[in-house]
Amino acid sequence: MRETNTSFDLLFVGHFAVDQVIVDGVSETLAGGGVYYGGVAAARLGARVGVVTRLAAAHFPLLDEMRRAGVTVFAAEAPETSGIANYYSSADMERRVCVPLGFAGPIQPADLPWNQPSPGSSDLAAHIYAITPIIAGEVGLPLLELLADRGPVALDIQGFVRVRVGSELLFRAWPQMAEGLARVTYLKVDRAEAEALTGETDLAAAARILAGYGPREIVLTQSAGVTVYADGEIFTAPFTPRSLAGRTGRGDTCFATYLTKRLTTTPAEACRWAGIVTTQKQEQPGPWRGSAADLQAARP
Fold it and tell me: Is there a contact between 178 and 213 (Cβ–Cβ < 8 Å)?
């Protein structure tokens, strides 16, 4: 998106997932993860996108969908692929029960592209390093700090507070939150996470508390839309989907759209576009498959 020598606009770091989506007892196996939903959306919006991930070698062919969308993928082999079973009822697609399936293990500094042996890899860089894990343990504080030393970090906090406990995924406080958020520029949380972390039910109040830890901009998602806190101001945009067939991946798409648009526009405009793209995404399963032309047609 920018004419510079930087290799990527956005470099996503997190697990590619093989998920199960079960609606009223009917199961479907789908690709998933923040790097998948977010990476494809950002690439379709015109960003130069890289993805650093881990998964089982048997699932490497599934990465081709991202490559076809223009994403450069750096994949490390793991014993198994991460995944979550998401249980929904068609009567209420807003609520889901999440059950962990596999876990591909922590992403290591050696997995990062500038630590690869290929020629020119040491020069790779990004405008924003987007850490978008799905389960705690994918990315540790040392890796976060390493990325923050290279440039602005965007962080989805679910990958630090959604903890695997037996056959459940439970919310747990992030013991190193103060340390970690001090190194973050863009923070994404959903309503439940914001309330649990701050004790505030008012999203604007929760955003201000979270910003006090260090992040410059806070992106908060909920069923009704997205709220952004930036430069002491609050911006909002609604989600108005005609169906929730593509509910899974909503937050990932919203955050990726916001980050992509922030490369070239204001927080207010980025928030507005995040609302539009996320609305479209929720109407169809899988990643957002629109284009910049679609967005121009959707412009109010």
Answer: yes
